[in-house]
Amino acid sequence: MAVPTEAPSAEMSNLAVTDNAPKGFAKRDALRTNEIAVQEMWEREKVFESDASDDGKDKFIVTFPFPYSNGHLHIGHAFSLTKSVFRAQFERHLGKNVLFPFAFHCTGMPIQAAANKLKAEIESYGVPPQFPEDDPEVRAKMEAELRAKAEAKAANQNPEKKAKGSKTKLVSKTGTGIVRQWNILVKMVPVEEIPEFIDPLHWLKYFPPIGVDHMKHFGSGVDWRRSFITTFVNPYYDAFIRWQFNVLREKGKILFGKRNNVFSLVDGQVCADHDRSEGEGVGPQEYVLIKLKVLQPEHGQKRHAKMEALLESHGEKGIYFVPATLRPETMYGQTNCFVLPDGEYGAYYVDATDEVFVMSARSARGLSCQTYEGNNYFTKEFGKITCLETFSGDELLGLPLKAPNAKYEKVYTLPLLSISMFKGTGVVTSVPSDAPDDYMALKTLKEKPDFAAKFGITPDMVDDFEVVPIIEIEGYGDASAVFMCNKLKIKSANDKNKLAQAKDETYLKGFTSGIMKVGPYAGQKVSDAKLKIREEMIKAGQAHLYFEPESRVVSRTNDECIVASTDQWYLAYGEESWTNAVKNHILDEEKFNAYDPIAQGKYEYTTGWLKEWACTRQFGLGTFLPWDKKWVIESLSDSTIYMAYYTIAHILQGEDNLNGDATKSPSGIDPSDLTDDVFNYIFRKAPAPEKSNIKSEILEKCKKEFRYWYPMDLRVSAKDLIPNHLTMALFNHAAIWDDEPELWPKGFYTNGHVLVDAEKMSKSKGNFLMMKDTIKQFSADATRFACADAGDSIEDANFSRETADSAIMSLVNEEVWITDTFSMKGMRTGAESLNFMDKVLLNETDRAINQTADCFQRMQFREGLQHGWFEMLLARNEYRSYCQDSGLPMHEAAVKKWCESIVIMICPICPHWSEKVYKKIGGNGYAVLAPWPVAGEEDKLLSRQAKFLRDNLKHFRAQVGKAKKGWKESSIMVTDSYPDWKVETLLWMQGKYDNGFPSDFMKQLKEKCKSIQDKKLIKFTMQFASFTKREVEDVGPSVMETTLPFDQMAILEESIAYLKSQLNIENMTFIKLDDAEASAGVPDRMKESVVPGKAHMWFH
After folding, report:
1. With 0-12 CB in 10 A as exposed, 13-18 as middle and 19+ as buried, what is 1048?
2. 995 torsion bin: left (phi>0), alpha (psi -120 to 50), beta (else)
3. Is the pLDDT of residue 139 over 90?
4. Which residues of 524-547 are buried (b: 16+ CB within 10 A; e: fewer)?
5. Residue 7 in this model has a pLDDT that exceeds 80
6. Rounded to an integer, what distance in angstroms lies between the CA atom of residue 172 and that of residue 827?
C-alpha cells in the first residue's frame, strides 16, 4: 500500500491505521451493508443500463474477455476486471454514455472433459465416490509415485540440473498431486447435485448465473440485459457465430487443407485438450529447419568414424545437421553449431528430399508426420522414418559444416551443455551477435581452452570465429547479444536468469526495431525481411518448415504428442494483405492505443508469426460449422467479434436470459429468423432483407445500436491473450469490416498477472482467493481499493490483503470525518478570508483532480489512487493541522471543495462508499453519474511556496531534534541572495533554455565546469544545475530566476503559530540575512547554511 512520503504530524496520525486500532468486523460489516443497499438501488433504478442515444453525448464502450464458466471467479479475474470497471466509471464522470457489458464463455473442451472425467469417477467409485487414496497407505504410495514421475520428468527436461528432493510443482500446486473432479466440485457445488454435472450442459445452467451474482456483489457496473452464454445452447449467439463464419468464408478467409495439429501417434488422432494428461491449451509452434551440410572430417579424430562411413555410403545425397530456429533472418551471423555432448542423435533418411538429416529421434518422429510441400509428406509412410545410424553428441563434436548464408566457409560443431533434447531437434545453430546464450557459450570455449579440450575442441575450431554483426538496433548497436551481456554483467553461461532476460529483450527489440545490415534485404526492418529470407531459404533448399507443440503435451495414453499435418478447416491469418491491414492499424497511434510500448511490440510481433489457425474441432461444445456440421468451431475462433453482439443482445435475448430462451425475447424474435441477410443489414452495409419475420423497426433499432456503440473504445485483458485472442480479434474485425476500418477496435489495454501478498496464488499456500470470499472478508470497495493499489503495468502486480484490511479503516474513518465536517458550524467563509493555507488546499485539490484524471485516462490506477486519495489525505491533514495549530477555524469553501472532490475522485474505485457519502453531503442523483470535479490549472508558484513551507518544517524538526541543550532563543534565518557561483550557473542555464533545454544539456554543463578550478565547486555546480533543471521541467523557467519569485519571510511569519506548535517552541524570531543590521550577530558558519528557499534555525 502506498504510504505518505512526509513524516505525519500529530493530527495526521489520527487517521493512520495503527496496531491498536480496532480491527473487528464492525467496520467491514458496515461497508458490506451499505454495498448491498447501494447495489439494490443501482439495480432497481437501472443505473448502468445504457442505450443508443441522440442526445449528443459522447459514447464509451469497454469490454472484458468473457471468463470460462467451469467454476467461480477468483481474484485474478477481479484484478483484471477492475481495469475495465474503473475506466468505465471514470468515463461516466466525464459525462459520457458508457456501456460495460459482460458474458460467459462455454465453448471448447474443458467443460466436456470435466464432465467426462466426473462420469468416469462415478462409474468407477460410486456416489459419493470411495477413492483409493482415501486409505492413508494407498495415498502415500500414490503421492510417492507421482513425485517420482514429476522429478524424473524435470531431470529429463533439464539435464544440466539434478532433480532435488523437494516437493514437485505438481504436488506443491495440488497439495497431494492427486486431482479428482468430484473433489473440485465439492468446493463449489452441493454434494447432492454433483452427479448432475456428468452432463456438460448442466455446467452451462449452473455456473453463469453464479458468475452474474458474484459480479453484482463486486459492484461491476454491468448492463446485464446484454449478457449471454456461448455454444449452440444459446440459439441467438449460435446464429451470430454462424453468420460470422459464413462471412469469413465468403471473403476467402477460411480454407480447407492439411493443417498442423497436436497429434498422438499411439492414439492415431488429433489430441484435443480433453485427451491430454498434460499440456492443455498448447498449440503448434512453427520452426525453420536450417540445413548445415556435413563436410569431410579433417582433424583425424576417431570419434568421427561413424560419420566418415555414412559420408562414404550416403554423402552424395547430402547429410545435414538440421537445427530448428525461430529466427531464420539471423543465419548470416552463424559462427558454429551446438549439440549436447551426451545427447542421443540419429541420421534419418528423408524420402521427399532424398537427403539425410541429423537430429533427435523425438524430432524425427514429428518430422515424419508433416508435409514437405503441398500434401506430400517428408516420408513415404506417415509416422515412420528410417534411421541409418545413431550417434552420441560427442561423436558429432568437431565436425566441419557448411552453413547457409554464413560469412564463414565452414563452421564447427561445438558443445553446449544447456541443450534440451525435449525441444527442437537437439541441434542448435549459433548466432552470437544476436543470441546471448550463443555468445556466452562461444566466449567460454575461447577463454577456457582446457574446457574446450575436454570435449576434443581444438583452438582452430573456435579462435578464428568472431561475432558477425548482422542487425542494427537503436540503443543496442549491431551486436545486441554482446551489448546485453555487458549491460547485465553476465559472467558465464550459468547466469540463467540474466541470460533469459537478455534473450527476451534482444529477440523482441530485434524483431520490432532491428534493421538488417547484411544480405539482399540490408536496410529493411527485420519484421519485414524475416518472412522474405525464410521463403528464399526454403525455395533454395537450404531450409524447411518444421512444427512441434509449444510445450510438452502428453496424451492420456501416456504418449508424448507431436505435430502432424491433417485435414482441417483453418483461418488464413498469414495472408499478406490481411496481416498488413492489421499491422498498419496497430502501428497507427491515431487509430489504436496499446497503452504500453511493450504491448504494442507484442502485437506487432504476433501479427508477424500468426499464420493459418485451425478454427474447428471434432469434439467439444460450441457452434457447428454451418457448411460442414461434423466440425465444431473452437473456443478462440468463436470469441473474436462477439463485442458487436453485445450491442444487440438486449434486443434479442434481454435480461435474465443467458441461455437465449426464445420465449423470453423482449422483441419476440425467433432465433430461426436471424438469417445472414438480417445480420448483414445490422452489422454491415447491406440492404434490408427482402423477406423477414422480424419487424423493420426492430431491425432498425438493432442497426442503430451497433452503429452507435461501435467502434469498441477499449478492451481490457491480461497480457497472455496478446498472442491469441486479442490479435485474432483485430484480424477478425479487419476481415468482417474490411470496408469500414473506422469500426475496428480503438484500444486494447493489457495487465500482468496478479500475485497475492507477493507470492503466486496457490491453494497449498492459502493465498488462492476466490472473488466472492474476498468480498466477504474485506468488502467490495476495500477489495477494489487493493486491486487499484496492486499495479497497472504489463508486469505482474501484487494484491495485498494488508492493503485491503487497511482500506476498510481508511474508508470508514474518512466517511465519519467528511460527514462531521460538512455539518460543522463556525467555519470561516468568504473569498476575502482565504489565507495562505486555504489557497494551498484549494490548489492541491485542483492539482490532484487533474493528475488523477490524467492517470485514469492512461489506465494508471495505482498512480491515480496515489494522487486522488493518499495525496488528498496528506493535503487535508496538513491543512487541518495548520488550522488547529494556528487557532483558526477551517475555511468552508476550501474544505467543501476538498470533500466533494475526493468523493468523486475515489468513486471509480470505491463507488459504494462514494454513493453513501455523496448522499450525506447533499449530492443530487447518483454519485456514479455525478460529473468529474471542476479544477483550474495548478498554480505551480503556489505549489512551490507550499513545498517551501513543508520542506523547511521538516528541516526544522530535524534541527530541533539535534539541538544542544541549554539554548534560550530560536531564530529562523532566510536569505533572498544566492552565492555568486549559483547566480552564474542560473544565468548560464537561462541562456541555454528555449522552451526546453537542449538534448545535450548535461554534456554542455560538463564542458562549462572544466573552467572551474575548485573540484568541490565542480561537484556542487553539477548537482545544483541538475536539480534546477528538474525543477524547471516540473514548475517552469521561473525557477531559474536569480531571486526567489515569492516572499519567504511572509510565508513563515504568517505561519508562525503553526511552526511554534509543530516544533513545540514558545518563542521564535525571524532574521533576514540580506539585512546587514538584523543579521549582525549571526555567526558566519550559520549564514553559510542558508540559501534562498532553504531557511535554517539558529539556537542561541
Report:
1. buried
2. left
3. no
4. bebbebbbbbbebbbeeebbbbbb
5. no
6. 61
* Distance in angstroms between the alpha carbons of the first and the last residue of the chain: 43
Average pLDDT value for residue range 343-370: 97
DSSP assigned state of 554: E
Alpha-carbon span 714 to 663, nearest angstrom: 33
What's the average model confidence in pLDDT over 1018-1039? 86
What is the rounded CA–CA span in Å between residue 498 and residue 523? 30
d(CA 220, CA 88): 10
Task: Give the pLDDT confidence score for residue 109 in this predicted structure.
Answer: 79
Q: CA nearest 660: which of 243, 63, 226, 211?
A: 226
Residue 346: enclosing H or E segment and its boundaries? strand 344-350
Residues 640, 649: contact at Cβ < 8 Å? no
3-state secondary structure 87-154: HHHHHHHCCCEEECCCCEECCECHHHHHHHHHHHHHHHHCCCCCCHHHCHHHHHHHHHHHHHHHHHHH
Statement: the pTM of the whole predicted model exceeds 0.90: no
User: Cell 534473450, residue?
Assistant: 503
Whole-number Å distance between alpha carbons of 212 and 217: 9
The 10s digit of each residue's pLDDT in 837-856 is 999 999 999 999 999 999 99
The set of residues, in sequence order, having a beta carbon less than 8 Å from that of 587 and lying 6+ positions away, is 600, 604
Residue 197 pLDDT level (bands cut at 50, 70, 90):
very high
Longest dimension (CA), the chain: 108
Alpha helix stretches (DSSP H) within 158-273? 169-174, 181-186, 200-217, 235-250
- Lookup: cell for 634: 473452437
Per-residue CA distances from 115 to 95, 122, 185, 200, 624 (Å)? 47, 11, 11, 5, 20
Distance between CA atoms of residues 969 and 536, nearest Å: 87
Question: Rounded to an integer, what distance in angstroms lies between the CA atom of residue 619 and that of residue 939?
Answer: 65
- The Cα–Cα gap between 207 and 188 comes to 9
- Report pLDDT digits (tens) over 764-803: 778 889 999 999 999 999 999 999 999 998 889 999 999 9
Residue 240 has pLDDT above 50, yes or no: yes
How large is the average pLDDT for residues 6-19?
Answer: 33
Extract the C-alpha cell encoding 615: 478454427
What is the three-class DSSP state of 165? coil
pLDDT in tens, 325-350: 999 999 999 999 999 999 999 999 99
Reported as type and span, the H/E element at residue 560 is none
At 855 the pLDDT is: 97
Q: Which residues pair with 107 in a beta bridge?
A: none
Burial of 649 (0-12, 13-18, 19+ CB in 10 A): buried
Alpha helices in 256-402 (DSSP H): 305-314, 361-367
Tens-place pLDDT, residues 619-678 = 789 999 999 999 999 989 999 999 999 999 999 999 999 999 999 999 999 999 999 999
**Which of 693, 1060, 657, 671 has its CA nearest to residue 881?**
1060
Please give the residue that has the higher pLDDT: either 372 or 10.
Answer: 372
Q: Which amino acid is at 97?
A: N
In the sheet that holds 970-974, the strands lie side by side as 1069-1072, 970-974, 1096-1099
| β-strand partners of 105 | 68
Burial of 565 (0-12, 13-18, 19+ CB in 10 A): buried
Residue 51 and residue 101: Cα distance in Å, rounded?
12
* CA-based radius of gyration for the chain: 35
For residue 512, pLDDT over 60 is answered with yes
C-alpha cell read off for 97: 454514455
Rounded percentage of the chain residues whose pLDDT exceeds 70: 95
| SS3 label, residue 786 | helix
